Amino acid sequence: MSELRWDPLKLHWVIIATDRGRRPRDFQVETEAAEMTSCPFCYGNENKTPGEIFAIRSSGPPNSPNWKVRVIPNKYPALRIEGDLNKRGYGLYDVMSGIGAHEIIVETPDHERGLADLTPAEITDVLVAYRTRYLDLRKDLRFRYMVLFKNHGTRAGATLSHAHSQLIAVPLTPPVAATELKICREFYDTKERCIFCDLIEFELSAGDRVVREFANFVTVTPYASCFPFELRLYPKKHSHDFALMNDGQLSELAVALKDMLLRLKTVLKDPPYNFILHTAPPMQQRLGKPEYWSSISYDYHWHIELVPRLTQIAGFEWGTGFFINPTSPEDAAAFLREAEI
Ligand SMILES: [Zn+2]
Ligand SMILES: [Zn+2]
Ligand SMILES: [Zn+2]
After folding, report:
1. Catalytic: which of 164, 240, 278, 301?
2. Among 152, 163, 248, 330, which residue is least crowded by beta carbons within 10 Å?
3. Which residues surround ligand 2, an ion (CB under 5 A)?
């Protein structure tokens, strides 16, 4: 059983994933990117993965080929679905059982194509799978947040090259999300406006960090980007919850997402990257806090954050939390805007 442990000095939670049980020599092996002879995400290998949770397929029974997108439990999950949280103190620390869900969304049956290479219709299917799993996991009252992310390339943490993303449901709000949610709520409290709507309006009028604008979505490089070619993809109309997007909106998002990934692939020659979907958490009642979610549909604005993994985090960054970014976001936006895709 994994454990979630709280450090009261660093103010962070860490998942001690004992199920993975790595010993020193396991880490030496990991530096050589092992390419499997037989990929568990390809057609015909459905029996090499745990049974599917959800799939979009043209024909055939579950766990057979002919699927377009397939969602399966992670074979080596960081958190496990069974059990109670068992929250408790341990000396100065806090600890709880590693309860959660860890799912893999296989984005295409085609081993050779990345998410950027899929058609907008195929990407729409991937987004429909995201939405379906979000809505389902929200019914589990133990989960306070769903982290949907993609690791592309070995340097970004992908252990299998076949295109996939991951969804981890966790029993607490991760600090990055908690900070963002708090800032949005406080901004709304004083100004009665969504901070993201203000930011999007400003970026559209300034223009020099806009990579591409669509009717309902916009891609920008953040003003204070920590990393070169960092990107954000925003819905232009206010919306706090990705899972409320209808099919038409998801197909528009697919076009914008493909455009962003293809520009990145063209300019940086298929770089490793991570993206994370930031959206409203499940609005479960908090005991003694009836007003807890009262403004979230007004104050929060879902979006996608993407970070190409071009530079290494070194001593200065680890030690200070400051980042040195060698490419200005204005230059990055210009390179991406001018890319011929
Ligand atoms: Zn494959
Ligand atoms: Zn907004
Ligand atoms: Zn965010």
Report:
1. 164
2. 248
3. 194, 196-197, 238, 301
Residue-wise pLDDT for 273-332, tens only, equals 999 999 999 988 888 888 888 899 999 999 999 999 998 888 888 888 888 899 999 999
Between the CA of 302 and the centroid of ligand 2 the distance, in Å, is 8
Q: So where are the chain's domains?
A: 174-341
DSSP structural state of residue 115:
G
**CATH class of the domain defined by 174-341:** alpha beta
Q: Is 192 left (phi over 0), alpha (psi -120 to 50) or beta?
A: left
User: What CA–CA distance (Å, rounded) separates 116 from 270?
Assistant: 9
Q: Is 164 a catalytic residue?
A: yes
| Alpha-carbon gap, residue 301 to 242, rounded angstroms | 9
Residue 168, phi-psi category: left (phi > 0), alpha (psi -120 to 50), beta (remainder) = beta
CA of 232 to the centre of ligand 2 (A): 14
CA distance 3 to 12: 13
pTM check: above 0.85: yes
**C-alpha 2 to ligand 1 mean position (Å):** 29
